Amino acid sequence: MALLQISEPGLSTAPHQHRLAVGIDLGTTNSLVATVRNGISVVLNDEHGRAMLPSVVRYTLDGRVTVGESAQSAQSDDPVNTIVSVKRFMGRGLADVGDTSRLPYRFVDMSAAGQAGMLQLRTVAGVKSPVEVSAEILKVLRSRAEASLGGELVGAVITVPAYFDDAQRQATKDAAKLVGLNVLRLLNEPTAAAIAYGLDNASEGVYAVYDLGGGTFDISILRLSRGVFEVLSANGDSALGGDDFDQRIHCWLLEKNQLSALNPQDTRLLLTLARAAKEQLTEHEEARITAVLSSGEVIDNVLTQDEFESLSKNLIQRTLQPLRRALRDARLSVTDVKGVVMVGGATRMPQVQHAVGEFFGQTPLTNLDPDKVVALGAAIQANLLAGNRSSDEWLLLDVIPLSLGLETMGGLVEKIIPRNSTIPTARAQEFTTYKDGQTAMSLHVVQGERELVSDCRSLAKFELRGIPAMVAGAARIRVTFQVDADGLLNVAAREMGSGIEAAIAVKPSYGLSDAEITRMLQDSTQHAQDDMQARALREHQVEANQLLEAVGHALEQDGMLLEADQRARIETQMSVLRDTLQLTDQRELKRAISALNETTVSFAQARMDKSVAQALAGKNISDLEVK
Amino acid sequence: MTHGFDTPKNHFQLFGIAQSYKLDIAQLELAFRALQAQVHPDKSAHLSDAEQRVAMQRSTLVNEAYQTLRSPIRRARYLLSLQGVDTQEETNTAMPLEFLMAQMEWREAVADAQQARDADALGQLEARMKDETGELEAMLAVKIDSEHDYAFAAGLVRKLRFMERLAEEIDSAYDELDN
User: Fold this and answer.
1) Which among A19, A396, A426 is the nearest to B60, CB-wise?
2) Which of A33, A531, B37, B78 is deepest in the core (most CB within 10 A)?
3) Other Cβ atoms closer than 10 A to B164
């Protein structure tokens, strides 16, 4: 009798095995993790049965990091080292934060040091980047998921506000990279919510998703038809959310009690009470706020729903402007909208529901929990991306929210990719040299809708080097902007005459360089260097097995598309990879993985052409040129 | 590599629709979705890097082709380029005086409406602009599809480009009213 083959746990590659994938809602106030279990999307709770992990990270002197409820309960005692709403700092410089005196942190302005401009926070455990703080939250969610699902994750879909720019998206992806979490996709939060809603209700027509989270506001207009979710436009404000409503109550308290310049402890205390009052006012006519400040002063005020409504009126107005713009960009009017989906805890406020209902002339949909719907949708997408077959097959077509452009003469912006372009998308632009013999050129990439560079967000500066020396105007440098399905930009350049690939040095304006990420990786594992190598090896082993499985499966299915010598080359690389798997050299393994990948590119193209041909009976796009 | 099927020469063949200015948008949408359902990167997120890269390139091309055909002005430009006709939108500035005068009046009217914060006036201008754009597009269909008068059609595209800029100005005027 043949022996049964049993693979090592976590390395199993049986083709029809369920792959563990999760959706993560990395929120400003709370974060959640969800997965699809037995065909149903469910939020995973912690050991105390709590679904929501407060997005609060505390650093202590002994080097310990606490995340969630326990960190939150310490925020009034230790506000400087307890980071709340870190999402607001992702991919942002100090100048973006505005009035820093209202926040209890010790900010470090990195742009002053001539480094990447993302702000950092000085804690008792050292200086921390918002990316590192977010990574701590992701780490807890991953452990929760792995404990709950009983295995290692293939990857995660992480949600971001639709209105996040490139720097904010990149920072989110970097946070995942820092904890070794494979990002299957960055998914826009309103789109995730639409998946959860749409697949639930089998809806058709145009829908608006109004997503007011803890610190961000998004509006997305989508068209749902026969399993296709097509985002028509997105707009928003990535610095407006439920936190701002707390701030309004906080300011009201200061005014009522004629207080000024509170210490960090009192500021945090009043903000916490302000939030509690806001939540109370969702169901009650009034809320009483009582506190004893560190000076011994007693605070005792009653806030009514009417007063709160007038305090927050212009915050709600600020959400209506993006609404109008999104509709205009989609070339639609209010009457075209069949339903309005409410997402985010802040949409529980009655005045928000009222204002949105009035704007659209219909009662908004609130039948799914606004706190959980994003995570639930992300889990459904993660399940699909991980390759788990489900009965529903759908397609998601999303857009970039903000135009991408280049700086031209006089500090003006030349738009290269307009906002609301369906992704993935690419656009090429040709440039020439200004001087005889010029061999380098610099490019400044910006994102935003305004005409002046100074009014847009600086994403990166590129230097092209190695341009062949020619007379001025003779070189033709083709710069290609490619936005991938995560909404992230990549830039490539080539001198067309010589075919020389110009080298690009990227200086991200707000992001982290690869060197910084490496440094953070080392920091986070300095006591566990072996651990890190073991993990990297393990990740590569999993990747190698998945690749072997995928290629083997492809050969079985479509091997007839290959000439004998092509097939032989692929099979050789496969056996090289199989042999390398027996060793424990992670670098060799990585090399063998890329070698097999390279060898299969044309096979992949042929396979895709075949499936396209089957779908469209005789059409093929392999030689299509963008004109 | 062996292919058992034809290679498309252009965007129309890609979507399997007739090469003409007049276009059944619903049919284009259906073909676009059917293609994306095959090539979108989400379909190969679990496959090898090579397959993911190919998917991104193909999906990008399908998006580009779709946007080109969907937009009336880009479709005209593209059809003319297939005929070897350059619309010379940057270089050819010879416009009928009458048309240029009308454009100036339009722009003043938009600026006035913006200044007066008059959304109704802006709405009326927008409606008139859409009418005129529609007329130009109807004429393009005749010149390209029936008369094959591509030089004339190129002139119409240059006029449409003016209307497109006007539409952008109306949009930004609306934005200003919102602020």
Assistant:
1) A426
2) A33
3) 17
Q: How confident is the model at residue A11, as a pLDDT?
A: 41
CATH for B41: 1.10.287.110
Tens-digit pLDDT profile for residues A317-340: 999 999 999 999 999 999 999 999
DSSP per-residue codes, A388-456: ---S---EEE-B-SS-EEEEEGGGEEEEEE-TTPBSSEEEEEEE--SSTT---EEEEEEESS-SBGGGS
- The answer to whether position B89 is within a domain reads no
Letter string b/e over residues A520-530, b meaning 16 or more CB atoms within 10 A of that residue's CB: bbeebeeeeee
d(CA B54, CA A281): 53
Query: Does residue B143 form part of some domain?
Result: yes
Average pLDDT, integer, range A283-288: 93
Q: What ipTM score was computed for the predicted complex, to two decimals?
A: 0.90
Per the CB < 8 A criterion, the answer to whether A235 and A323 are in contact is yes
CB atoms within 10 A of CB B77: 22
Residue found by looking up tokens 């729903």 in the block? A305
Give B80→chain A minimum CA distance, Å: 12
- Residue by residue, DSSP assigns A14-60 as -TTSPP-EEEEEE-SSEEEEEEEETTEEEEPP-TTS---EE-EEEE-
Of A78, A166, A174, A211, the catalytic one is A211
Phi-psi region of A281 (alpha: psi -120 to 50; beta: other; left: phi over 0): alpha
pLDDT for position A9: 42
Q: How far is B60 from chain A (nearest CA, A)?
A: 5
A16: number of Cβ within 10 Å: 6
Could you give the domains of chain A? 404-513 (2.60.34.10), 525-616 (1.20.1270.10)
Given a contact cutoff of 8 angstroms between Cβ atoms, the answer to whether A53 and A137 are in contact is: yes
Burial class (CB in 10 A: 0-12, 13-18, 19+), A128: buried
Chain A residues inside the 8 Å CB shell of B78: 627
Residue A197 has pLDDT above 70, yes or no: yes
Query: Does this model's pTM top 0.90?
Result: no
B93 touches chain A (CB under 8 A): no
Residue whose C-alpha is closest to residue A158's, from A609, A441, A178, A148? A178
Q: What would the two tokens of residue A211 be?
A: 């997503």
Same domain for B19 and B62?
yes
**Strand, coil or helix: A555:** helix
**Number of domains making up chain B:** 2
Task: Find the domain containing B109 and state its range.
Answer: 97-178
A87 catalytic residue (yes or no): yes
